[in-house]
Each structure stands twice: as structure tokens, then as C-alpha cells.
Amino acid sequence: MDSTPSPSSSSPFDLVSSALGRYIPRGGAAAAGPAESPGDPAGQQPEHDHPAVGRPEQILGAVNLDRELRVTHRNLEAPVFAGLDAVIGSPFVDLLPQGDVPTVTRRLRQVLETGEAHVARVQRLRRRDGSELVVSMSILPAAAPQEGLTVSVIAMARRLHLYAAETAIGTSLDIGETAQSLAESLLAWGDVAAVDLDFAVWTGEGVTERAQGRIRLRRAALVPDRAWPEGYVTLGQDLPSDASRLLSQAIRRADAPQSIVLPDREAIERVLGSPRLVRALVPGDRSAGVACVPLVLEGDPPVVLGVAEVWRRADRPFADSELFDLQELVARTSHHVDLARQHQREHTQVLALQRRLLPRSGGRTVQTASVYQPTTPDSAGVGGDWVNSFPLPDGRTALVVGDVVGHGLGAAATMGQLSMEARALLSAGLAPDEVLEHLDETVTLLDDSESGLAAGYSALGSTCCIAVYDPVSHRVALSSAGHLPPILVSPDGRAGPLPVHPHPGLGAEFALREPFGVHTFVAPPGSLLALYTDGLVEDPAVPIDEGIGRLAEAVAAVHPWDTLQQAARRVVSEVMPTRQRDDVTLLLARLIGYRKGDTATWRLPARDDAAARARALVSALLRQWRIRDGTRDSVLLLVSELVTNAVRFAGGPITVRLIRAGPGLLCEVGDTGNGRPRLGRGGLLDDAGRGLHVVHRLTSRWGVRWTDTGKVVWAEVVR
Predict the structure, then answer these.
(1) Which run of H or of E encompasses 54?
(2) Are 370 and 586 in contact (CB under 8 A)?
(3) pTM exceeding the 0.85 threshold for the entire prediction
(4) Contact 354, 375 (CB under 8 A)
(5) 603-to-30, 429, 650, 653 alpha-carbon distances in Å
């Protein structure tokens, strides 16, 4: 026999029951007494009965459950709950429609395991006569030392339900979640609810008025969660083209979107006209009626975003008032669907930009792999993190990682601008620290009153790290602007963060600005370099140094034979914080370099015979490499012109380097000069600038990069 808990108890069930006591007279059955017998008049009270005139209508009830989800106490005295068989000792799921049992059971057990309440979800409860009651159900954990759950239910009056539904639908900008919330709310009027959206709405494309027969519908939401018959269109599937056409024609009358009701199976089969379409659209073999309500974006003309469908048994026809309620709910929430569509479009644009900046593949001297994981699936969680790796024209490879402040389209646009600027400057031969100086100026300019603050977005404080790898000397030049230090794993397995000099970041105040330093180190072939953003290692519960140490251990565990992309995903899964708070970005680069037999370097004094000595040395090497005569003659003339120019205009010791790189030969001549060679308008026979014209005609591309001691002029010849 059920016993009423003492008033001193402070369990959620007792708190709800004490609130009920202020409204329900105690002259009848005890609030926590046993279930009504079949002969009890209260148990036979029909759903539409109301309390006596002058008595406030009670819509709140409570049921207490043990850890096995069986009823231990209940307080369902209000007339609106009549017919609910909450028998003491019976499973709570006996109160649910069969199709809702898996979902609600999962929610109940989740609250038991986590102790976190599950608040205010629209749910149907089943009466003994087969009718259903729509309630707002909350699941609360029992107060210690008690165990179990308290399920509070609020019978949903029409206006209350409309308000609660509209509030719930407007809480997410994800188009799938928005459609799902709408379908769950529509379930209050039927047994099955579905939301089918125009494919353009689902993908976030622009929506325009189109011909009736051209609409393409995709199922965006379907409730309840159950096993559906074979052939039925379920979540994420496209409706058959004939079904899309028929639905679009049915809800458009005289080009005005209107709701329609098909009261029974006979009417549905007559409209669909095909057993295949009946299987695709009708949720089961039982006789059913359906109300189809268009989701309309107001305008001139109005645009149909999709169709909401509510199915119910044919013996429960839709009343005019119910159809009015359905139309009102869908009309109130259609704009939320359009907002989600716009957000989806922004999300698609941001992700497209992110993917465009991700490294495509490694070159011959560097293998790369990257992982990018936004904070949330929608565009509000997509931030300004980026990684990039690309070969430079002179044979080196650039590795770049950056973190722009903020999230969304503004951060992504700034990220794209900084990434492209960094790539252009590095390709032009600037050193990493010089590139960061330009990015620092760019961020400052973007934050001025006209282009930055007026747009409501500031990129001040963004970070960036640039590494340039020379595959011949195996040296890496690295500069950082406020970024966390990269991890280097040497071929012998030693791993740790690089000692990079800290910097306040891009766009810092003038008083805080410091020159960007360059950290140069040797990375032997087989070394592994990891660049990342702070979202991978920052965890409020763990010191940042410990997070970086965990990353170093995970990267050190990558085997030289491992596929780099799989290794990158594994590292992220091992190191990423349990509760992700920021974008996670990782770039792994396995530094390979050129084989010794594919490169040669000579240092020559800046004398008149330097060009002749260079030709002799290069000629012997080209014969050893078995380069064909035509290419050998071009390379010898190219080396002669570059060395001659270095002796004439620069002076100092001259370095000649030749690299066999795939289908081409890369020739480099370094000197101590800092002037930029320019290709003038003079002709081939003019004395001034003749050498550069020869270089330009003989090579597929050429350029200049600056070093600490001068410059290097490089040129590539196709073999």
C-alpha cells in the first residue's frame, strides 16, 4: 500500500505534492494513494470534464519512480489526469504510447546516470480508453539520500501549448533541430508528425518562388522514434518526385498556400493514386487521416518553405478548431525555419572557406595531414582557426597555423584574408617574421572605425605561427605571433615544444609590440612537426603546460609507418578536452627533405672567374645526373648569367646550389647584396638587365628571396 511521505521530506516529489495541496481539496482519495479502481467515478471521468465552477483548474501532477523506473508514489488527482493507470509498482512506460517508449526510457536513464534534470519536453500519455493526453514532462533526480526520479507533468492547455512550442522551436539555429522541435510540438495533435522541407531550404540556398511542379522535398523531421514500415520515407530521405509534386500542388490553390485535410485512407489513396506513394507517405497500414499545413515565408508572393504533416487515426477526425491551432503554430514558427535556413547558408559558406584553406596534400619533401573540428556543428561554432601548408616556388615548404578571434562569418572572412596574405607574402620570398609584421599591420587596419568596429567585429589578439622548411639544409625558420609553441618529434623519438619567444599577438597596442623573432633549428629527415591551436590543449581543469605535454606524448607515439591522416585523427581524439570549448585544429608535417644525391652546393669567391668555375662544376654534375644536352646547355647559361650578375652587382662570397626536383632542375645563386633584381623593358641585346632577360626566357619560373646575409635568386628549368 502506498504511503504518503512525511511533510519534512524535501524530495522533488514532495515539493510538487505540497504545491498541489494548495489547489486540490483533500476530501477525496489521498494524493499518494493507490490507483483508482475501474469502478471509481474519477477513473471514468472523460477527458473533457472540467473542475467545478469557481475551482481553479489543476494541470500539475507528479509521479515518483525507483531506479527500475517503476511507480512508487503518484499524485494525479486532478480531473484532467483521469484515466491514467499509474498503478503503484507498475512500469512508468505503461503510461506511454508504444512508439515513445525507447525515447522516454533513454531520457529517464540519462537523468539517473548524470543527475542532470531533463526539463519541459512535450510528451503524450496514454489513457486506459486509448485516448492520449499531451503534457509538458520534466524528469528530476531524487534528492540525496533518496534514489530514483520524480516525473512532473503539466497538462498542456491549448494556448499554453502554443506558447511552449513556439519558445522551444526558436531556441536553435540548426535547421534539423528546428524542424525536429516543430514536429515534436505538432505531435500534440496526432499520432505521427513529419516536416518535409524544400531541398533549397535544407541546404541553405536562396529560396524563390518557383513553378508548382519543381519543388523537391526532403524529410527533415519525423516523430515519434520507432521502426517504420518498409518503403516509408524516413528522416534525411528525399520524397519521391511524384509525392513532392502532389504535395506542392495540393497545398497551392490558385497559387495561394493553403492547408488541406485528407480525412481517411480512401481519400489519401485517391489523391496519391499509387501504392508506391502510399507506402512512402502513409505511416502504417491502419486507416489514417492527415492534415498538411504549408510552412510559408510571408512576402509578395509568399514562398513555401515546406510542408508539415500530422497523421492520426481515422476515427479521430480533425476538428476545425484543431486545424486552426495547427495553422497558427506553423505560421508562428515558419520564420524560425527561415532563420535556420539562413544560418545553414552561412554555415556552409564558412565551412567551404575552412576546407579551401586546409592543406590538399604534401609535396615530395614534406608529408602533411590536418584535422579541423569546430566547436559546434552550426556556423556560430565555426571560428577563425586555420592551417595551411604549401610548397614555395623556390622548393621550400611553408607551414602556417592561425587562430582569429571570435566565431562565425566575420571571423572566417578575416581568417581567409590573413591566410591568403600570408601565402602571397611567403611566395614572394619574405621571411616568416616579415610576413607576421605585415599581418600585424593588416589586423590593425581591419580594426579601424570604418571597417572593423562599425561591423561589430574585432580581430585584435589573433595569433599565427609560420614555419618555413628548407628540404636541402633541413633547417626550419619559425616565427610566432602569440601562438602556442609547436611540437617537434626527432627521428629518435624525443618530443617536446620548441622554445619559441612569446609575443603578444597580432594587432597589439604599440606599447606592447615587439619585433617578431625567428627561431631556426635543424629537423633531420623523418622529424615530425605538429602545429595546433589552443582548443586542442586548453582545458579549465588541466594546466596548459600539462595539455601541451599530453600532446607531445601523443605525437611522439606516431610510428614512422603510420598513415599520417589517421595518426592526426588519433592524436586529436586522445588529446582533445572532454568538453570542447573552442575550435580544434592540428597540422602534422613529416619532414623528409631531398636525398643527398639530388642536391649539390658550392661556395665561390666573387672573382671574375667565378662564372667559369661555376659552369665547370655544374657541367660535371649534370653529366653525372645524365641530363640531356639541351637542358644542360640551358642550365649552364643560366648559372653563368646569375653568377655574373652576383659578381657585378653584389660582391661577397657566392653560393651556387643545384637541386634535382622531380621533373625540374632548381638553380639557386646567393650573394651578399640586398637589391631586388627587376626585369626591365630593355631588349635582349641591351647591356643593362640582359642577364635577367636570359633568365626569364630560359626558365619556367624564377624569383628572389632574402636571407640574413643577403639574397638568393632562384630559377627552375624543366628537364
Answers:
(1) none
(2) yes
(3) no
(4) no
(5) 102, 22, 15, 7
